[in-house]
Specification:
There is one protein chain. By secondary structure, the protein is of the alpha+beta class. It has two domains: 104 residues, OB fold (Dihydrolipoamide Acetyltransferase, E2P); 298 residues, BirA Bifunctional Protein, domain 2, CATH 3.30.930. 28% of the residues lie in helices and 25% in strands. An eight-stranded mixed sheet has the order 6-10-11-16-15-14-13-12, with helices on both faces. The protein is elongated, with a radius of gyration of 27 Å. Bound molecules: aspartyl-adenosine-5'-monophosphate. The site of aspartyl-adenosine-5'-monophosphate has 23 residues, from β11, β15, β16 and α11.
Length: 442
């Protein structure tokens, strides 16, 4: 790998990758070669050599080769040559004197993606866009983040599940629901694994988690909405309240950010110019009603008829929490029952509020979590209260008729977490292949 070259002694090496740049001078040719781990400068010329009949490599080396002159940006090559440490080489302090260069797969000369291409062009040519080191780093950071989360779950004895994405009913609400033809009938794409992660509680699984796709027929074009995104879900039994869910949530976030910082922090600083901040626990918790008062005092009145917060309100409360507690995270808690789904448990003493929360990261919602209502009579009443169709929900309500422990969990949008962690302008940057109202390709 190119990243390993600096630590090697001078001598013969072989590297493979794609051509990022060619500087073709009269007597010397330079190539910047990149692989998934880094970039290195290749040099040809400067040394004249007689072809050596004993050495089969030498016939490929000509002081200034057409092979190199004609290398197009993006062409994949395998190169052998002498590795030389040289402090004057800005790129990693090493270069390789080319001995042989083999074109493995040529690139067309008209690379459609330039450094300043707009995001739509970049997404049209996502495989070329992803060759940029920043984009590659996003997905290495994501890998480290998810790996750390999995470690926490596995250490706690949680079970990983895969729930179906084809469903006979809505999983969140009738809004934002994709319908698909299903043989003679119709199916829906899962908006969330909500019902099935609760099923695992009735199944006696205890703690579970899932990282998988979720679908929302959301026509909006904001920086944080996609029609398909990766949802990080977990659910756990025997909780006393949503506080237990928030504690698990904090543990996961801290583990994830610690791992990203440790593994990629320096590179993130170099390529994105930002420092990964690992939050202190506990994260601040503010009941939603209080948060609305706080932002009002800051001069912002949330312009919503319902009890909910809006994106600007989330930014305002995040700014307050940053100033007051120096935290990039805040839990907004105790949302009104009127704006939460039927399956959220309501307060014992005030049914107008729920045992629920949203987690805000740098001013944007990344998660919703709650204690679930597990008492079947109450759950049924809440479903009716929300105008749900009990027939369509029958399979779900059955989960609660044969015994079930108190439980709760959360869903977290992975692409949003990465966007906020790496200070990216949109989840288009932090989704491998973005899906939106007008994007289904590539
Ligand atoms: P909710 O609908 O709030 O809750 O979704 C949870 C999290 O998923 C992410 N998210 C999205 N990301 C990108 N594009 C979208 N269109 C989109 N919609 C949602 C957000 C959001 O916070 N079942 C509950 C979770 C639970 O209670 O366990 C649910 O789906 O980051």
């Amino acid at each position: 790998m190119i990243k390993d070259l600096a630590a090697r002694e001078d001598g013969l090496v072989r590297v493979s990758g794609w051509v990022e740049k060619v500087r073709d001078q009269r007597y010397v040719q330079f190539v910047v070669l990149r692989d998934e781990s880094g970039a290195v400068q290749l040099v040809n010329g400067g040394v004249l050599r007689e072809p050596d009949p004993e050495n089969p490599r030498s016939d490929i080396l000509v002081p200034r080769t057409h092979t190199i002159s004609e290398l197009t940006h993006g062409t994949f090559v395998t190169v052998t040559g002498e590795l030389q440490h040289n402090e004057r080489v800005k790129l990693g302090g090493v270069e390789i004197q080319i001995e042989t260069i083999k074109v493995v797969a040529k690139a067309l000369p008209d690379n459609p993606v330039a450094d300043d291409s707009n995001i739509d062009v970049r997404l049209d040519w996502r495989f070329l866009d992803l060759r940029r080191p920043e984009q590659n780093l996003v997905f290495r950071a994501q890998t480290a983040f998810l790996h750390a989360l999995r470690q926490v779950w596995v250490d706690r004895g949680f079970i990983e599940i895969q729930t179906p994405k084809l469903m006979a009913s809505a999983s969140e609400s009738r809004a934002e629901l994709f319908e698909v033809e299903y043989f003679e009938g119709q199916a829906f794409l899962a908006q969330s694994p909500q019902f099935f992660k609760q099923m695992a509680q009735a199944a006696g699984f205890g703690g579970i988690f899932e990282v998988g796709p979720a679908f929302r027929a959301d026509p909006s074009f904001t920086s944080r909405h996609a029609t398909e995104f990766t949802s990080v879900d977990t659910e756990l039994s025997w909780i006393d309240s949503h506080e237990d869910v928030m504690e698990l949530h904090e543990e996961l976030i801290v583990a994830g950010l610690t791992a990203v910082k440790k593994k990629h922090g320096a590179e993130i600083e170099q390529l994105f110019g930002i420092e990964i901040k690992v939050p202190a626990r506990p994260f601040p918790r503010i009941p939603l009603a209080e948060a609305k008062e706080i932002v009002k005092e800051r001069g912002y009145e949330v312009p919503r008829a319902d009890a909910d917060m809006d994106p600007e309100g989330e930014r305002q409360i995040a700014a307050y929490v940053e100033e007051k507690y120096g935290s990039e995270f805040v839990f907004l808690t105790d949302y009104a029952s009127s704006i939460r789904p039927f399956y959220h448990m309501r307060h014992e003493d005030d049914a107008s509020l729920t045992n629920s929360y949203d987690l805000i990261y740098r001013g944007t919602e990344i998660s919703t979590g709650a204690q679930r209502e597990h008492r079947i009579e109450v759950l049924e009443a809440q479903a009716l209260d929300k105008g749900m169709d009990p027939k369509e929900l029958a399979f779900y309500l059955d989960f609660f008729r044969y015994g079930v422990p108190p439980h709760g969990g959360f869903g977290m949008g992975l692409n949003r977490v990465l966007m906020l962690m790496l200070h990216q302008p949109s989840i288009r940057e932090t989704t491998y292949l973005f899906r939106g109202p007008n994007r289904l390709m590539p």
